[in-house]
Amino acid sequence: MSHQPGSAPHHVVIIGSGFGGLFAAKALKKADVRVTLISDTSLHLFQPLLYQVATGILSTGEIAPATREILRRNRNTRTVLGRVTDIDLDERVVVADVQGQTTFTTTYDSLIVAAGAGQSYFGNDHFAEHAPGMKSIDDALELRGRIFGSFEMAEVETDPERLAQWLTFVVVGAGPTGVEMAGQIAELAHRALRHDFRAIDPTDARVILMDAAPQVLPPFGEHLGAEAQRTLENLGVEVLLNSMVTDVDAEGIEFRDPDGTEHRIPARTKVWAAGVSASPLAQHLAEQCGAEVDRAGRVAVEADLTLPGHPEVFVVGDMMNLDALPGVAQVAMQGGEHAAATIKERLAGRPVPGPFVYNDKGSMAVISRNRAVAKIGDLELAGYPAWMAWLFVHLLFLIGFRNKLSVLLGWAFA
Fold first, then answer.
1. How far apart are CA 387 and CA 220, in angstroms?
2. pTM flag (> 0.70)
3. Which of the residues 157, 180, 227, 302 is marked catalytic?
């Protein structure tokens, strides 16, 4: 597949403006191709810092710059705001709904699908009403309203039982997102809001982190998981492990112990950080090409990230299932760049990069100000050194100098 002089530029369609889609588009900036990026949001969300929007540390603009602004120097790239509703692999056609007003249809020569993932409630979608997840700016703003609103309601509540409900916060899921969220709510109660109310003492707030797993941060190993748990407990967070959520309603959450005993925690504010499910587009693609889909809805891809039988279609990030790779930003970034590199080498008639090789640069989770854990290869860090490493990495990948500066100042004065 080489580009012939004088012919129309090779058309690359990218679905999604997250890390995978954005890094693919940036990697194609100087290529002799025409790029159309379709996304159902006009923003590029720096999802690792979303919980800081939910807890009021950062504003939305600091972690979600406009995609058009980021790609304004990519003269070969057009951005379309739309929700992809259909992909026809045989005809090489993508159809998108544009704000419910019109339909955008385009053909492609190469397709990069990086539509990401949403929250998974493991078949209990009715939990979402009372325990929202955190996958979008709207989610974060909803949670911010619920968290700060609970303190406001507590300020005027006179019934002791209802007061306790308003001041109880439950985070479900002890992975990085849950740990970061629980730690930030605890810090909010014990430091940021400590002197802001008159009828209540925010430090009386009860913050609970709950998971069905036997340890905090399972991918980080036992040592760092235990270190994270100790740090959380020192902040006043109650950690409940081996606890399976069985029901959620407006006034509380129910869970089951390993021995089958049922418990209930009265709580007005619940946060769901327990699982993800790939975009429905993964299932849509799988049905057309005969690929398998795993329990998280991810489609199985070839070693080079292409769909079986469709070398012109790449699936990257949270939507792909390959070698049990984790659904983290680095996998999406590197996957997007790999897809772009493969397309460029094909067009140039040169050998393609071949199988996708993930370069694991480590995992990090911040717990509170000056406290984090990090696993980088065989190196394990905890406390302040891990927090400094976390700060450096997140500033490094945050888009735009203005955003880096404002986020740094936000952290400094939070």
1. 15
2. yes
3. 180
